[in-house]
Every structure is written in structure tokens, then in C-alpha cells.
Design brief:
By secondary structure, the chain is an alpha+beta fold. The protein has nine helices and eleven strands. The longest helix has 27 residues.
Length: about 240
């Protein structure tokens, strides 16, 4: 096990889509040169067009992945949450990063260098095929996220985002704190900031109240039922 990684975090890393189904010894070998990085808000992990020499797993906090458009606007491709993996596709291609990655809250990330990781895969074709299967599953999850953005209403998208922040094993009242700026939340959910404000207003009928970064949910199960109804209508 990576000596700086607590046992609980190690188990979460092992269960990420990239490593799902692999033995502990194999994952250990693949991550033999990985290291944990403590990051302050605003830290740049890599810049677009840099050589893709490493990929990352978020352990704590949030990381924004974005591109700058020719007219100077920032296009948010995604906001990575704990135990999500990013930049692995660019690393496997041997090219450069197509995006820039910036930490948007205090965070801890696992940095995985490419050389040792790819060398291990080249030694074992069976392992490489398992890794390919895991990456395919990850791609399916990304497509599902895009489908949600395209077909679900703004209030249902926001409701699901809030539920992801809550403890899935609890019901009843919950008080949440938004992990980053509302403008970035809007970008992650594929909407404009003013649409996010309207979505919060729409969720009031489901017992959601917001003030700044604080969000109070009167009953999580009521919000879950509302979001499930949205899923049935759109799929």
C-alpha cells in the first residue's frame, strides 16, 4: 500500500473504475511511483498542451478541468470530485493534455506518473485488456452524465447534485455547504448562473432552502423522490 494513504482511502482507490476487478498486488504495482499531493485552492496541476506525463485521482476536495476559448471565455469540461480519475486518456495516448486542471478547494490528489504505469501494462496484455474494459465503463458513466445534462431539467440536475453531497444512508433533514462557487456549479451542471438561481427557487417546493453557500434540505427522501420522478420522465 502507498505508505501515505490511509487504509480507507486505499480501498476507495482500488474500487475506482480504472482499477475495479484488479487484485491488490496488481494495483500496488501500478501505483508504485504514485504520490499524494496536498493542494491549496487555485493550484494548477497541469496546463493545456503540456506533455501528458501523469494522471490524477482526487482524494479530497474538487478539481476543475477547463479550456480557454479563442474569445477568452473559460469552458468548464468537468469538476472532479473525490475518487474520480482524470487525465488518464491523455496519458495513454502519449500526447498532450487537451485541458487545464485547477484545484478549486483545498484538496488532496494522488499523482500517478505515466512511465512506470504504462511499463507495467506492457508486461501483461491481460492486465492491459482489463484496464481497457475499466476505461470503457468510465466512458459510459461520462456519457450518462452528458445525457443528464441534455435531458433533465435544471432543477432536477441541481437536486441530484445536492443529493451527491449528502450522506446516501440518511434521510430527513440535512445541512450542506456548497463545495465551490455557484458559477462553477452552474458550469458543471450545464447551465447559466441565472438558471441555477431559478433552479434553487424551483426546489423550494421540495424543501430546499439556500443562503450563500449553505443549503438546508428539510427531507432528503422528498428530494430523492422528486429527482427520481425527473429521471423517469426523461428516460
Amino acid at each position: 500500500m502507498i505508505t501515505t494513504l490511509p487504509p480507507k482511502e486505499w480501498e476507495f482507490v482500488r474500487k475506482t473504475p480504472l482499477f475495479n476487478g484488479l487484485t491488490e498486488d496488481v494495483v500496488q504495482a501500478l501505483l508504485q511511483e504514485a504520490r499524494v499531493i496536498e493542494c491549496e485552492r487555485g493550484r494548477i496541476l497541469f496546463i493545456r498542451d503540456e506533455p501528458a506525463e501523469r494522471f490524477y485521482i482526487v482524494l479530497e476536495g474538487w478539481v476543475k478541468v477547463f479550456r480557454d476559448s479563442p474569445d477568452g471565455k473559460q469552458i468548464v469540461v468537468g469538476v472532479m470530485k473525490p475518487y474520480e480519475i482524470f487525465a488518464q486518456a491523455a496519458m495513454f495516448s502519449g500526447g498532450s493534455y487537451p485541458v487545464t486542471a485547477e484545484v478549486v478547494s483545498e484538496a488532496r490528489v494522488l499523482e500517478v506518473p505515466a512511465n512506470a504505469f504504462i511499463a507495467k501494462l506492457q508486461e501483461d496484455i491481460g492486465l492491459a485488456l482489463k484496464m481497457l474494459s475499466s476505461m470503457s465503463q468510465h466512458l459510459i458513466q461520462m456519457v450518462q452524465h452528458l445525457e443528464q445534462i441534455q435531458w433533465r431539467s435544471t432543477s432536477h440536475r441541481l437536486g441530484n447534485f445536492l443529493l451527491d453531497l449528502a450522506d446516501p444512508t440518511t434521510s430527513g433533514n440535512a445541512i450542506l455547504h456548497l463545495p465551490y462557487d455557484k458559477s462553477l456549479i452552474a458550469a458543471r451542471l450545464g447551465m447559466q448562473p441565472e438558471s441555477l438561481s431559478r433552479a434553487f427557487a424551483d426546489l423550494r417546493k421540495s424543501g430546499v432552502k439556500s443562503a450563500g453557500s449553505k443549503v438546508e434540505i428539510e427531507n432528503l427522501n422528498v428530494l430523492r423522490d422528486y429527482c427520481n420522478e425527473g429521471s423517469e420522465k426523461n428516460y
